[in-house]
Amino acid sequence: MTHKSYSSGFGSVPNSTPKDNDPMVRIADALEEILRLVKADQEKYTAREAREMLQTDELSKEWKV
Predict the structure, then answer these.
(1) Statement: residue 59 has pLDDT above 60
(2) How many other C-beta atoms are found inside a 10 Å radius of the C-beta of residue 16?
(3) Is 47 within 8 Å of 38 (Cβ atoms)?
């Protein structure tokens, strides 16, 4: 998805096609971008949580001696 700089006019986009001016298409594109960002954030959080669990397990093994 490419980002376009929208002008302050009512739905006018430089070098646009009629499809680009459709508000539903713009909303759908924005939602896709939001979902992509949320998914990437969740993947980072899951990986970090897994690392922390491994570190906690390793520390608890040291204390069980």
Answers:
(1) yes
(2) 13
(3) no
